[in-house]
Amino acid sequence: MGIYERKQREKEQRKIEIVNAARKVFSHKGFNTATMEEIASEAELSPGTLYLYFKNKEELHTSLSIEILKHIADEIQKVVNQDISLEEKIERFGEVFIAVYEYDSSILINLFHLQSGETLQNLSDEVLQQIKTYSAMAHGAMVDVIRDGIQQGVFIQEHPVALADILWASYAGIVLWVDSKRLLNDQKDFVKPTLKTAFKIISKGLKQQ
């Protein structure tokens, strides 16, 4: 291994360490309270070193959202590759969405805020491109399944992109809305059962009668 390759590997490893440290600090203190100095301390680095890898705290927090978006895209692609019916694939998409919410709801919520807010304007071109890439992977895989279902007469004759948008928007909307209700009313977390109900309705609505 040459000097350049070794330095690149060390750089990637340090970036992973920073992200892991950030996850711990954000989880413990929350995004608003956490500081770059605390994250640097957790990663055993100087604050200045963090800024060599991330422009600001928002971008570092966004990197965690990119991880979960990539995870969603990978899991959806696994479903697409399974030897099951198209109707079952739609149902599995719902299961993937619920599993990701259970894995890290706070980062998932941040992802949906990112996709619908002005924060995107404050991100570097590299980070923004990653969000676009993984969003396209996840959305494109859903579109392909729905398009196949329409062509085979399994799903209703509507635009596949619009139907995939409804699927994704339902996911994001339910997570954000039900979570906000929980915070306002100090209620139990009803996101999971609401998602199950929503995707049951969506799956039924997609099918040709």
Task: Give an overview in words.
The structure is a single chain. By secondary structure, the protein is mostly helical. The chain has two domains: 53 residues, Arc Repressor Mutant, subunit A; 151 residues, Tetracycline Repressor, domain 2, CATH 1.10.357.10. Helix content is 79%, strand content 0%. The chain contains nine helices and no strands. The chain is globular.
Q: Determine Rg (CA atoms, Å).
A: 19 Å
Q: In percent, how helical is the residue content?
A: over 70%
Can you tell me the number of structural domains?
Answer: 2
CATH topology of the largest domain: Tetracycline Repressor, domain 2
**Beta-strand percentage range:** under 5%
CATH superfamily of the largest domain: Tetracycline Repressor, domain 2
Taken in chain order, the helices and strands follow as HHHHHHHHH
- Compute the number of helices: 9
First-last Cα distance: 61 Å
Overall 3D shape = globular
CATH class of the largest domain: Mainly Alpha
CATH 2nd-level architecture of the largest domain: Orthogonal Bundle
Largest sheet: none
**What structural class do you assign from the helix and strand content?**
mainly alpha
Mean pLDDT: 88
Ranges where pLDDT stays below 50 over 5 or more residues in a row are: none
Q: Tally the beta strands.
A: 0
